[in-house]
Amino acid sequence: MNALIRTFAALAVLLSGLAHAGQGSEYVNSYFELWLKAHNFTKFDKKPNGLFFPANGVLLDGDIYQVKESPASKLYSVESRVSILFKDGRRLDDFVVGVGGTAEDAFKDSLMNFCLTTLHPIYAELFDHADPHVRKDAWEINGSRRRIFLSEWGQRGQLVNEATQKQVEQLIASELRNNSLTTKDLQWVKLVVLIVKGKVEQVVFTVNGVVDQRTSQRLSGFKWPASGEFTMAKLFFVIGAAQP
Q1: 161/164 Cα distance (integer angstroms)
Q2: Residue 216: which residues within 8 A CB-CB, separation 6 or more?
Q3: What's the whole-model pTM score?
Q4: Under a CB-based contact definition with an 8 Å cutoff, are residues 64 and 84 in contact?
Q5: Contact 103/19 with Cβ under 8 angstroms?
Q6: pLDDT tens digits, one per residue of 191-235
Q7: Band of pLDDT at residue 64, cut at 50, 70 and 90
Q8: Per-residue pLDDT at 182
Q9: How many Å apart are CA 4 and CA 173, to the nearest integer?
Q10: What are phi and psi for residue 213, nearest 5 degrees?
Q11: CB atoms within 10 A of CB 206
Q12: CB within 8 Å of 168: residues ≥ 6 apart
């Protein structure tokens, strides 16, 4: 039995009785271990508290926050917590939700969502600038040309079209032009948008986990396309080192 099968066979037992936070860290961390090895990356140490990357002092860890079953739809939802602790003490905490016909499928969906929308840009900046799974750009920020790695938009419900995505990214780039970032090291930026029946219910724009009220307000006033029942969209990107 290979490592992936063993991991999810044991996970099925855990998920059958899990309904609250703080369990399953070994399964979350095993998932990321396999994900990294699938990218031919092995320069990390597996520790009791997560995966440690000695080259830059980064620790990656997580657990299963919540499991829910919906008898009406015969679907499960799993919310996983994932954290990245940087050497300078800054901490990225993300809660990602997955849905599936079984609890195991929902768990895998939650972590796949994290990898696609959050982990890939961070991995690209820290370890592989040529990573083909991210979009690459360079933006002028506070007088410096900064490397940018963007995820694809993570979306549920009615999708935000590509033309709108590009307009939003251009607006964000304009807003960040005069942003006085606290460090020239890696910065992480996230936009979360919720539109229900054509009404913008929530727009939250954060830099390093801190809400940027000005940009959030500007994006709230953006003319988002009318949605059907709902649109949920997430954009995550990393501001990398200053360019020469």
Answers
A1: 5
A2: 203, 204, 205
A3: 0.85
A4: no
A5: no
A6: 999 999 888 899 999 999 999 999 999 999 998 887 678 899 999
A7: confident
A8: 61
A9: 40
A10: -65, -40
A11: 16
A12: 160, 191, 219, 222, 235
